[in-house]
Amino acid sequence: MKQHQSLEESLKTYFGYTSFRTGQKEIIKDIMNGKDILGILPTGSGKSICYQLPAKLLEGITIVVSPLISLMIDQVKQLKAANFKEVIALNSFMEPVERNIVYQNLHRYKLIYISPELLQKQELQKKLVQLNINLFVIDEAHCISQWGHEFRPDYLKLNTIIERLDNPTVLALSATAALDVQDDISKALKRPTITKHIYPMDRDNITFCVQEVSHDHEKISILHQLLSDYHVPALIYFTSRKAAENTAQLLSVKNPSKRIAFYHGGMEQIDRITIQQQFMNDQLDVVCCTSAFGMGINKSNIHLVIHYHLPPQLESYIQEVGRAGRDGASSVGLLLISPNDVYLPRSIIEKELPSPEDIGVIFQQLLNYFKSGEKLPANEASIENMFQLNEVQWRFLRNQLEEHGMIDTGKIKYDKDIWIAAYHSIGNLINERKLVKKNKLNEMVQWVFEKDCLRKNLYKGFQSTYSPAAYHCCSNCGFTFSEWSPVETKQNVKNSLSWESKLKKLLLIGEGYEAK
Amino acid sequence: MLVEAIIIKCSLNIKGERTNSSIYHILQGKKSIQTVQDIHMYQLESYYGIFRSLTKGVFDKKINGLINEGMLQQVFGTEAFYTVSKTGEEWLDQQKKSNSMINYFNGLNYYGVTDVFIERLILLIQTITNTKMNHFNFIPVIDKTPAENWVKNVYHKKKTRETEVLGTIFNELKRLLHDISDEEAEMFVDRLTSYKNYGMNIYQLAAKYDFTSEDVQLQLTGITHRLLDLIHRTKSDFPFMSYILRDISAGGYLTNSADKTYNFFKSGFSIEKIAQVRQLKENTIYDHIVEIALYDLNFPISHFVNEANQEKIIKAVRSTKSYKLKDIKQLVDEDITYFQIRLVLAHSKNLQKQVIK
């Protein structure tokens, strides 16, 4: 360990920050001392530094398991931009040739991001066992819990892998883990005495506001009005990609002085990076987005976060609204709700997992396959196609089939009794998962229609206390927009330069670009 | 409406002799023998590979749109063969008048060049403008390793002379862009990223210029082809752009597999032997031979078809006025194979091309 430099000095050398944010130093110190940690830090508090700095300082390799491929790729980009080059993200989208080269050279990296699915592959595990792995990080650790809002079955197998890797120091991180979920995490990792660093997630500079409307038209006119009244960087969250696109277009027409764009997971990587960077760079005022936006975004002056649709659970809402006011300035989180809004998340819950009827049909198909003596297709997409399941549904089912010993590396194994038991058990599990999600949604709905203080009720399932509001509390405590006077950014002047002048400016030709 | 116009143009040339998937493969630039043969057969070389990211879903939607508008009509008794209606032809003529872009494309010539050229240029501008301002932590808008490596290399050579390089790029781009319409030039410039100024993405361009996002992608490709034409015409006028292009190879027109077959053939292996060594079906090797004949004028086709039979096949083509293999086959002796017909067609196609040049 390079202990001759203080942690602050290392932070400055490697990442250019002059001081730690709340919680970072305490967690890093414990990691350097080899303690297993559960860290609950609110969104935007710089969770990733908690392992990125140790990855630099510790001997050997740090592994980060992260469920979101786009997030991993973003992080790797940012690290490389900050001159941390010994970093790579491994995921199933890599070309076989590229993957092969990378696998041969894993020892050259300090920090390796891996998706939970890929980590299950024997080929990769064999490589990892040969390496000197000193820190094993589980990002979004709430995915380990059946009761969490984003349960990922592969996360339950992490413990076995940690053992195979000779028990490196474990760091489990999450932004939103309710108390029961925290217990699940330490149980699933078989670390009952894990050291907990829990930091409050409540945000005293955000004002909460719920507004009931009768129709979508009304939502649009509210958005139009707010964007006309205030010039602050804003995010508008949607559940559907199409709605994000359409509303961006509509608002651009209604608010021509605002620079509005949309962002969602269905866009190409390059088109997404562009929007992120433009927003960070103040080239955009408003981004209409889905929950795919914001992860890894570090913009401090977002002062308005609007939810056009109802989020599926409080955890998502807390994360998304928490992107407002990182600079500590007065910010508003507005949630718009119309009478029909609860149906959209309900139908998403219904479609998220295969139905019991689906399972019956698929079992029959599997049996036919078994009788014909064939293996399942190697390509996941063609299996999804065959069973008419989406990616998430098939991932869930494949995991279950493996768990019950019905398939093993693509080969189908038939035993009538096992299959019957599996059929019932999978059906029960699906109903259970749906129930969890429905309960989560009910909590969200209850909060929206809460008569008491919104702030108090938003955080009560996660922590025992909260700080009083720094500016205005919430719409139930009497807040109206008429009293909001946020720090505003200056209005952009629409430039109507000719292409030639634009090109000149772009290429830094002329006065005022004499940095060198 | 650019995508639609180009689909109509392709359908017009194909005259219902191929399924509409063949048009998809042409636009998407599929490296298969069938597609490569089609573009030569139907003079669609300019559209080959001009829309690499086109998905089948989007393409099918466009086709259905054109059918509903009455511009494409199904060939009687078939499922996926379409011809262009009178309405379609008239509409295409109108489009050609109002949109010069349709003539910008030069797909086959710039296959493998277009993307590399534009990726290098975009990333180089982003890099040099940032480093000029001593700003080294930027997120690159192009995340492809070959482009990154090329830019790194150039950066190391030019790093103290950013101002000079940017001046050269400005002068050359200015002259190039003056040769296209102002709107096209503006779109090209809007796409560029520089220091503290991220360029627009496809969807933002679509909103600004009121095009579909598919048309924006095609427009950008068209503009690039046009610029490449201008650069190639007078290389000495555009030394820096030529420098960017210098080591980009078109990647050879032959599919990789056909290329391997050709090497065996040149070393004197028979078809049977090549199939055996490469563990491929003989029919696949025959496909390769046809592909080779399309590109290599000196390929000895009489090795496979004697001259008398070549004559017969050419005569049959003239009398059917079609490239439909079935029709041709019916007019020639029974012992002439489909392979021989395709080979003669490929070879005569190649000859025609040389004469025109």
TrEMBL record, chain A:
Signal peptide: none annotated. Residues 222-367 form the Helicase C-terminal domain. Residues 28-195 form the Helicase ATP-binding domain. The keyword Transferase does not apply. Pfam families: DEAD, Helicase_C. One of its GO terms (cellular component) is bacterial nucleoid. InterPro entries: DEAD/DEAH_box_helicase_dom, DNA_helicase_ATP-dep_RecQ, Helicase_ATP-bd, Helicase_C-like, P-loop_NTPase. One of its GO terms (biological process) is DNA repair. This is ATP-dependent DNA helicase. GO terms for molecular function: 3'-5' DNA helicase activity; ATP binding; four-way junction helicase activity; hydrolase activity; nucleic acid binding. It comes from the Bacteria. PANTHER family: ATP-DEPENDENT DNA HELICASE RECS-RELATED, DNA HELICASE RECQ FAMILY MEMBER. The keyword Isomerase does not apply. Keywords: ATP-binding, Helicase, Hydrolase, Nucleotide-binding. It comes from Virgibacillus indicus.
UniProtKB/TrEMBL annotation, chain B:
InterPro entries: Helicase_HTH, WH-like_DNA-bd_sf, YpbB-like. Residues 257-345 form the Helicase Helix-turn-helix domain. Pfam families: HTH_40 (PF14493). Signal peptide: none annotated. Gene3D superfamilies: ATP-dependent DNA helicase RecQ, Winged helix-like DNA-binding domain superfamily/Winged helix DNA-binding domain. This is Helicase Helix-turn-helix domain-containing protein.
